[in-house]
Structure formats: structure tokens, C-alpha cells
Amino acid sequence: MDLLLVEKTLIGLFLAIVIATVVSKLRGKKFKLPPGPIPVPIFGNWLQVGDDLNHRNLTDYAKKFGDILLLRMGQRNLVVVSSPDLAKEVLHTQGVEFGSRTRNVVFDIFTGKGQDMVFTVYGEHWRKMRRIMTVPFFTNKVVQQYRHGWEAEAAAVVEDVKKNPESATNGIVLRRRLQLMMYNNMYRIMFDKRFESEDDPLFVKLRALNGERSRLAQSFEYNYGDFIPILRPFLKGYLKICKEVKDKRLQLFKDYFVDERKKLASTKPMDNDGLKCAIDHILEAQQKGEINEDNVLYIVENINVAAIETTLWSIEWGIAELVNHPKIQKKLRAEIDTVLGVGVPITEPDTHKLPYLQAVIKETLRLRMAIPLLVPHMNLHDAKLGSYDIPAESKILVNAWWLANNPSHWKKPEEFRPERFLEEESKVEANGNDFRYLPFGVGRRSCPGIILALPILGITLGRLVQNFEMLPPPGQSKLDTTEKGGQFSLHILKHSTIVLKPRSV
Ligand code: HEM
Questions:
Q1: Of the residues 440, 451, 456, 491, which should be mutated to test ligand 1's pocket, given the most ligand atoms within 8 Å of the CB?
Q2: Could you tell me the sign of the dihedral formed by the alpha carbons of 64, 68, 69, 74, in that order?
Q3: C-alpha 375 to ligand 1 mean position (Å)
Q4: 4 and 83 inside one domain
Q5: Domain count, the chain
Q6: Which residues share a beta bridge with 81?
Q7: Range of the domain at 18
Q8: Where is heme annotated to bind (predicted)?
Q9: pLDDT, tens digit, for every residue of 36-58?
Q10: pLDDT confidence of residue 1
Q11: 3-state secondary structure 377-431
């Protein structure tokens, strides 16, 4: 560790000249850069700021330097945006200028340098990929085609929990079972496939590789090599592991899912649109020559990371808040009982008739935003934001969590109070109609998965609350809601044990 530090410092010295040249070049251009801590040569602000650029630390910087600030992380410029007006500028008014994505050294590996959709720059490739993905994934038709499947998956969770005697006594780590449910919800859409149990060997392999991918990508431990290129050789081992995980994962998607589906399609030609699953549409686009085989695999990769864990984290946060706020849980149960009748299992169309359920979901996404900094945006060219110059290829982080938790804009934002969305904030939707509340972003690069995520959240939380009283485990009055942030993700640190007492109806 010490050796690494000495090496970092020594090599860093050589970089002084490079940085000095860059800085003088920028000055030569007479850039008016956003405020921020004073950088030192080579390292910029990295040594002051550290690695953990989570939404709370970035909020502290915003309080100090303002709604737009610049952090120089070695060679990388990082612009943090913390007001609704500036968020509107980045995501809407100048949505094209700021509509690209940055990738660091690790995301370059996992996305094949942007051959995917989520991490590619704004342009032809992105437009094509987003268009190709829309019909198979992001329409109301998809919701109507698969909602029965999601309802069945939620019912299976309820059954399994009821079968396990531990659930009502010492409690269980419900997340594990919900993870299987989320994989099934998405794999039904993608491949018309589901996994029978948490021990299914293919599911075990898939879950492990996806888990590794998320951990490696969201970790802060590779920052030094990303920020300071000359230190990159020290990242060789880390990047090699990333590459191995990436290769294994794409191979698994290909061998066990994509090729399986191709085989099935060749033996049983599908003449009816209704029988098509998402990959059939994507393969059709490949056959037409619109995209190549790698693009197909990267689409599968994107859905695996963008859809499953994000929704699962939100479900997990929702449950934790309901356990820690028993009155809210009771009120939600009462709403469902009154509107649907006791014992009538909630379905997707029902979720629209339950305003308190919607408010609970919105409040969960406000306080516990799964992607609190959105997925990083980037400007390909020099740009202006507020009254400042933003150098080309800056990483733009919109602190969406702070927009939704700033006491200047929200009444007691630290409280979990769904009522706010029925009272003073009753016009605020999750789709970005208010720039203070952007859990799915807004504009060109906003989350297309919102159309699936909201009903899945409603069905899952609804079914759990209908069937169980959810409580902390014996001897504990509250669940631990310590957060764990990553490069741009936020989830609960400890997957809690929860007691689920079946309701006697
Ligand atoms: C509660 C669950 C979810 C949350 C909170 C969430 C949130 C987000 C956010 C904040 C972004 C970035 C917006 C921006 O950069 O401006 C995003 C992008 C994206 N999300 Fe989601 N998401 C969720 C579920 C899903 C699901 C279920 C899918 C797919 C089925 C999905 C697919 C995507 C894709 C493909 C992008 C990239 C869009 C682009 O770059 O053009 N998400 N999501």
C-alpha cells in the first residue's frame, strides 16, 4: 500500500508538466470555469475530495461552492449540478449538448467502448439502439403482455414466504427471493424464460456474474488509475478481472439465452407477433443488418444492469420504509382493502386506482433514489452552463437526490411521508414533470424503463402488504437503513431480515 503511494507520487511528478500545459491551454482560451476547491498540480482536487463521490458528499460541496461546481479529478473534469434550473438546462434545454455519456476505464470494458445503448455518446448509434429497444421493452403493450407474468411471480413470492415457517418467527432475508422474482420478471420479457428456484444452477451463475459486474463497475477503488492515466499500469490486475467477467458474462448470455432462442425460433417459426419475446425483435434488427451480434449481447447486458438491480433496490427500500413506519404500512393496507376488497389480489390495472400506494412508491424513490446522480452525462464539445464554460468531455453529475431532498424546496425532506404527494406535492409525477423530482431523469437520456418499473413496484409492494404484516426481526425495533453508494448507485447496505406475519383473513 505504502509502496503504491510512493509510486503514485513519483510518477505524479512527471505529470505536473502535462497538467500545467493543459491548465495554461484552458486559461489561454479564457475559460470561465465553475467554482470549486483549488486544484493542485497533477492530482487536481482528488487528494482533497477523495474517492467517495456519493450524493451526500457532493451535496456538501454544493452547499460550499454553489449549484454548479467543478471538481478536477486528475485529468477528469467533473461538474456537479444541484439546482432544478440547471438540471433543466442540462437535461432539457441543452439536452443534445449534454446528452452524451462518459465512460471510465472500467465502463469502457463492460460496454465494449460504447457498443451498448446506456453508455454510448449521443448520436446515430444511440438513436438506433434506443429505437430498436423501444418496441420490445418500453411500451404499454409490453406491460399488458407481461403484467400477468409479474402478478404470477409476486404470487409465487407470497406462496414461498408462507411455506417457510421462519418467515413469521425469526424472519427471512426477503431480498433473496425478490431477486429471483426480478430476474424472472425481466427474463420473461427478454427470453420468455424463468428460473424455478434460487438454486437453479444457471440462475446462480448469472446472478454471480451480474453481481461481480456491478461491484467492479460501481467501486471507487479504481478511480486513481482513471483520474491519472500514468497510474493506469497499476490497474492492470483490476482491469484484467473486469475483462474476464465481461467475456464470461457475454458468453453466458450468448450460449444459454440468445442461441437457445435462435434454435427455438428455427424449429418453431413464429408467425404470430404475440408470441415474440424481446430478443426475437432484437435478432430481427440484427438480421436486417441494423446492428451486429455484439450489439445484441450488449443490449442483453444493459437490461441486466439497468433493470433488475435498480428495481430490486427500490422494492427493498420500500419494504424497509414500510417496516420502519408501521402506521404508513397499515394505512396502505387499509387503502388496498377498501378499494379492492379484502383478499382480492392486486393486479396492474388496480395500481392506478390506489393513490396512497402511488404516493408510497414516489416517496421511496424520492428519499431513497436508486440512481441519485443519474447516469453521468457528458458534453462532447465545449459548452456553456449557467454563466460558466464547461470544457469538452466533462462528466456532468446531476445531483437528483439533492434536488428531491433539499429543504429549500421540500417540507421536512428527511421524513418518509408519502402524504406529501397527496397534499402539497400532489402534482409531482415520477416522469420528470417537475425538475425537483427526477428519480428516472428526464429528456433524451431519461429512463425508458419507468413504464415497467412503476407497475412492478406497485404489484410487488401491494401483494406483500396485502398478505403480510411486515416487521423488524425479534429484539429489533427498526431495520438498519444505512446507505451504500457507488459511482452512481445507491442501495441499502445490509439486506435486512424481515418478519412476515400472514394476515388472518
Ligand atoms: C426503479 C427502477 C429504476 C430506476 C430508479 C431507474 C433510473 C434510471 C435513471 C436515473 C437513468 C438515467 C437517466 C439520465 O441519465 O438522465 C436510467 C437510465 C436507463 N434505464 Fe432506468 N431505472 C429503473 C429501472 C429500469 C428498468 C426496469 C429498465 C429496463 C427495462 C431501465 C432501463 C434504463 C436504460 C436503458 C437507461 C439508459 C437510457 C439512455 O441512456 O438513453 N431502467 N434509469
A1: 440
A2: positive
A3: 8
A4: no
A5: 2
A6: 68, 398
A7: 1-30
A8: 447
A9: 999 999 999 999 999 989 999 99
A10: 46
A11: EECCCCEEECCEEECCCCEEEECHHHHCCCCCCCCCCCCCCHHHHCCCCCCCCCC
